[in-house]
Specification:
- By secondary structure, the protein is an all-alpha fold.
- The chain has one domain: Orthogonal Bundle (MetI-like fold).
- The protein is built from 13 helices and no strands.
Length: 264
């Protein structure tokens, strides 16, 4: 009995379920993607799936276009989300919590329902569905993922640093550029990652808001997998994962550099 109690009192024991979950739903799928991506239809090792991506301009152009849409969506979310998060961090905490809840509340509704509501809104206003509707829908769906991380960082910011800067004669603009903005960069980076990554791989929003006239990279992957082309679909998924991984490395390094430079 004592051995059982001792076993379950270890922290390592309680991490076992998480390790199992991580192995089944993260590690195994990634391994399968890599295996399928480097296989031919006959089952042997091959690079033909990546050669097909390079030689077929349609998939490459779709990928570049998806990155462009993701960048535009991320930039708009930063422009709209950063001031909103800054204002929320400066007002009374009880009021800020209510407003943040209003930002998060739509996230409780399924993304398909929200997108269908956006389609109905455009139909009601007699606005055409297309690229503009796509960007609007992307910003509407992912803006809370930009606001909340930035607000969370700003709300926990050490305000004594701001007071010290003011005591040393810094103007409000200098306080913001030299103290507030550098310290908020971790939240900005988190918001960028939470907006940019899913925007590249999404397909339902683009299909509904463009009547399937505009294809994103996620749609291309979905079509190949649905048509039984698992190897080519896995190669496309792996390419997307590599690009996202490289992007995350650059954003992390730029965040650290910006924070260090701002505080010097």
């Amino acid at each position: 009995m004592n051995s059982v109690v001792k076993y379950f009192s270890r922290r390592r024991t309680w991490s076992i379920p998480y390790v199992i979950f991580l192995a089944i739903f993260v590690v195994v799928p990634l391994i399968l993607i890599m295996v399928y991506a480097f296989q031919s239809k006959s089952g042997g090792f091959s690079l033909e799936n990546f050669e097909r991506f390079i030689n077929q301009p349609e998939a490459a152009n779709t990928f570049i276009y998806s990155i462009g849409i993701a960048l535009i969506t991320t930039i708009i979310c930063i422009i709209l989300g950063y001031p909103a998060a800054y204002i929320l961090s400066r007002i009374r905490l009880s009021t800020a919590r209510v407003v943040v809840m209003l930002f998060i509340l739509p996230m409780w509704i399924n993304v398909l329902v929200r997108t269908l509501a956006t389609v109905a809104l455009f139909d009601f206003l007699r606005l055409p569905l297309g690229e503009g509707a796509l960007i609007f829908g992307m910003v509407y769906n992912f803006l809370p993922f930009m606001v909340y991380p930035i607000y969370n960082v700003m709300q926990k910011m050490d305000h004594s640093l701001i007071e010290a800067a003011e005591d040393l004669g810094a103007t409000p603009r200098q306080v913001f550029t030299r103290v507030v903005f550098p310290l908020s960069m971790p939240g900005v980076v988190s918001g960028i990652m939470m907006v940019f990554m899913p925007t590249i791989s999404t397909f339902a929003i683009s299909e509904l808001l463009t009547m399937n006239n505009i294809k994103l990279f996620g749609t291309t992957i979905q079509e190949n997998i649905n048509n039984g082309m698992w190897h080519y679909g896995a190669a496309l998924s792996l390419i997307m994962l590599i690009i996202i991984g490289i992007t995350s490395l650059f954003t992390d390094s730029s965040s650290e550099d910006g924070t260090n430079e701002g505080l010097l």
